[in-house]
Write a structure and sequence with these properties.
mainly beta
Length: about 140
């Protein structure tokens, strides 16, 4: 995996092992700074430059949804939902930097914490976000 200071880390069960993701602060602008690794095989599942997700601020928080996609929280209040194929949806969840993300146990809401004056915010997920495989089969 690429070098750099570890800025955020998340782990989730994968099909045959565990998926781990890391965000690294990189010295070179062209470097990949988000890497998802399958620990059972050592295979890189996804590698990308988070600036491609539409935020020029650093990512600060990561969390896997129970269905397998990744939420990435940024220093400008944006959240990206990233699938393991690299497709993404980005939106502004709060007005200031995000420092923590967590999903409710049913996967219906994303809890967003950080420096927003409202404190902890809950983002309601759409049916497609909660069950992406079920939606794509239709």
């Amino acid at each position: 995996m690429p070098g750099g200071r570890l800025a955020a880390f998340a782990s989730a069960p994968g099909p045959r092992g565990r998926l781990v993701v890391r965000i690294a602060d990189n010295a070179l602008p062209e470097d990949v700074n988000l890497t998802v690794l399958d620990t059972a095989t050592g295979r890189v599942v996804l590698a990308l430059d988070t600036r491609e997700l539409g935020s020029d601020k650093a990512p600060n928080a990561l969390c896997f949804h129970p269905s397998g996609w990744l939420a990435v929280g940024f220093g400008d209040g944006r959240v990206a939902h990233v699938t393991m194929t690299g497709s993404s949806t980005v939106y502004r969840a709060v007005s200031r930097a995000i420092s923590a993300l967590a999903f409710t146990s049913d996967g219906a809401r994303l809890l967003v914490g950080g420096s927003d004056p409202r404190g902890l915010c809950a983002v309601e997920l759409t049916a497609a976000e909660r069950n992406p495989l079920e939606q794509s089969a239709r």
